[in-house]
Design a protein that fits this description.
- The complex is a heterodimer of chains A (251) and B (276).
- Chain A is α/β, with parallel strands linked by helices.
- Chain A folds into 2 domains: 1-75 and 163-251, P-loop containing nucleotide triphosphate hydrolases (Rossmann fold, 3-Layer(aba) Sandwich), CATH 3.40.50; 82-159, no CATH class.
- Chain A is 32% helix and 25% strand.
- Chain A is built from 7 helices and 10 strands.
- Chain A has helices at residues 43-51, 91-103, 112-128, 144-156, 174-190, 202-208, 246-250, and strands spanning 5-14, 17-27, 32-36, 58-63, 66-67, 76-79, 162-166, 195-198, 211-217, 230-237.
- In chain A, the strands form 2 sheets. A 6-stranded mixed sheet of chain A has the order 6-7-8-3-9-10, sandwiched between helices. Chain A has a 4-stranded antiparallel sheet with strand order 2-1-4-5, covered by helices on one side.
- The longest helix of chain A has 17 residues, at 112-128.
- Chain B is an all-alpha fold and 276 residues long.
- Chain B has a single domain, classed as Orthogonal Bundle (MetI-like fold), CATH 1.10.3720.
- In chain B, 76% of the residues lie in helices and 0% in strands.
- Chain B has helices at residues 10-38, 48-60, 70-102, 104-118, 122-133, 137-161, 165-173, 178-215, 221-228, 234-262.
- In chain B, helix 3 crosses helix 4 (104-118).
- The longest helix of chain B is centred in the C-terminal third of the chain and has 38 residues, at 178-215.
- Classes of the chains: A alpha/beta (251), B mainly alpha (276).
- The interface between A and B is large, with 51 and 32 residues.
Chain lengths: 251, 276
């Protein structure tokens, strides 16, 4: 089976501190990979490397078989825990931003019929995430949950090959978090997305994911804890049709 | 009740705020009346009637030498210098601050230079400006611009550099180029801060304007004050100072209102959305 995203012997080192060591991973198109692990185990570094924000110090990352450029690009969308939306743009402008950048390299703004087309597409995307009647609000006027919905719509409108979520629901109330879980599950199946989600909520990881990666250090040197990096110590494929009780797998 | 919890209503606040101003005014009138009772020719603390009389000549009677209404000619000349100086500094601060804040290579190249220039007291540069640019308006405008621009540049650059990293990454994942990020992400978010920086620069700008005019000029608010100082004409100096204060307040308020009107998202919008 050909993988959408492959990590080949990927190491991430900062100076003599090893964060990730020797990661080998294949991620299939259409999978929903949850990444869990203790604080400082390199969850965020793992995401940043795939995102292109950091370059691996050794090894290779392949997207569709081609090496990934060490810079963020529109083939990988992202939703962070916070600060993912632009505070100076309305909901609609935030969502159309990606389309406007693609259509107008010089001004970053569309006009006339091209603009109307982009805004219609943005409205449809906003309706899909449940923000259809908040088009002209600024992010500061919305709750945290609405802002995350907006961040998701903003990323999805570019149809990224992979959607990366960095603790996207970590700052939300439990009730709203449950709504967001339904939303992301629905979008994942409707749009045929490939998602990698970093979370510290084990229950969330198992209930949403089709595969759970646990990152941790395999080896530990008490005298030089920074010399060993983390890697995927557990890689659990979940069969969504069978596994009705995620707690069984967690145990 | 603790003093830190004694909140003042708007109405009370206005009354309390007016109190010291009225008190000071009253004290001045009292002292002026006292001095005039002792010496009707006193020049140090003129009575309001004396000020009105002195200002009438400047406001309404053309100067026999130049034919200008001096007060208005002074105001126009000073505002022109101030406006040009502020405009040049603001445009420069926006341009340099933006690229300095968002482009690491430019920050590495120009950052130390801007920091070095910022520590030079601008007044110390005035002789150089007068020698290089002559005694005309150019040197005064340059003094204002050079005096306030470095602080504004550093403020803008700092603000741009402090934009959340997440925002810049997000913009890149949405396909934005460096140019598009500068134009559509950094620039608009810089504008309210630029107006704020301009507000804070108004005070120093007035200082540099008055200094420049005091040293070499033939018209301007600062020139007039320093000219009539030779004749102890407090009846002209005090109204001029009050006029300068009024102009400064109007500019400040205009900037605040302008920023609220133009950039509502930067001024604490009330929440409208109720559900997630």
């Amino acid at each position: 089976m050909s993988a959408l995203l492959s990590l080949r012997n990927v190491w991430v080192e900062f100076g003599d501190r090893v964060v990730l060591e020797n990661m080998n991973l294949d991620i299939e198109a259409g999978s929903f990979v949850s990444v869990v692990g203790p604080s400082g185990a390199g969850k965020s570094s793992f995401l940043r490397v795939i995102l292109g924000q950091d370059a691996p110090s050794r090894g290779q990352i392949l997207l569709d078989g081609a090496p990934l450029s060490p810079e963020c690009g529109p083939d990988r969308g992202v939703v962070f825990q916070r600060y993912s939306v632009f505070p100076h743009l309305t909901v609609l402008e935030n969502t159309a931003f990606g389309l406007e950048c693609a259509g107008s390299p010089l001004l970053g703004r569309l006009f006339g019929s091209a603009r109307r087309k982009a805004y219609t597409e943005a409205e449809a995307m906003l309706a899909a995430v449940g923000l259809g009647d908040s088009l002209h609000l600024y992010p500061a006027q919305m709750s945290g949950g609405m802002q995350q919905r907006l961040a998701i719509a903003q990323a999805l409108i570019k149809r990224p090959r992979i959607l990366l979520l960095d603790e996207p629901f970590g700052a939300l109330d439990p009730g709203i978090r449950a709504d967001m879980h339904q939303l992301i599950t629905r979008l994942w199946s409707e749009y045929g997305l490939t998602i990698i989600m970093v979370t510290h909520d084990i229950r969330e990881a198992f209930s949403l994911g089709t595969r759970v990666l646990a990152l941790d250090k395999r080896r530990h040197d008490p005298h030089a804890p920074h010399r060993f990096g983390a890697t995927a110590v557990y890689d659990l494929p979940l069969d969504k049709t069978k596994a009705e009780n995620p707690s069984e797998l967690a145990a | 009740m603790r003093w830190i919890n004694r909140n003042i209503s708007r109405k009370q606040g206005m009354a309390l705020g007016a109190l010291p101003i009225l008190g000071l005014l009253l004290l001045y009138l009292l002292l002026a009346a006292q001095r005039h009772a002792a010496n009707p020719m006193d020049k140090i603390l003129p009575l309001p009637s004396g000020m009105v009389q002195a200002m009438q000549a400047l406001l309404f009677q053309p100067d026999p030498l130049s034919g200008d209404l001096l007060f208005w000619a002074d105001t126009l000349a000073s505002l022109q210098r101030l406006g040009l100086g502020l405009g040049i500094a603001t445009a420069g601060a926006l341009l340099v601050g933006l690229v300095l804040g968002i482009l690491p290579p430019v920050r590495a190249t120009l950052g130390p230079l801007v920091t070095s220039i910022a520590v030079i007291p601008p007044i110390a540069l005035l002789p150089i400006l007068f020698i290089a640019l002559g005694l005309g308006d150019t040197a005064k405008i340059a003094l204002i611009a050079i005096g306030i621009a470095p602080v504004m540049i550093r403020d803008i650059a700092g603000h741009v550099a402090a934009l959340p990293r997440e925002q810049l990454v997000k913009a890149q994942t949405l396909g934005a180029s460096t140019w598009q990020i500068m134009l559509r992400v950094a620039l608009p978010q810089t504008m309210p801060r630029l107006l704020q920086a301009l507000r804070l620069a108004l005070g120093p700008a007035w200082v540099f304007l008055i200094s420049g005019e005091a040293i070499a000029s033939d018209v301007g608010l600062g020139y007039r004050i320093f000219l009539v100082r030779r004749y102890l004409s407090m009846d002209v100096i005090i109204p001029y100072v009050l006029w300068i204060a009024l102009l400064a307040i109007v500019m400040d308020v205009a900037l605040v209102l302008g920023s609220r009107r133009l950039f509502p998202w930067a001024h604490g919008l009330e929440a409208k959305g109720d559900k997630a």
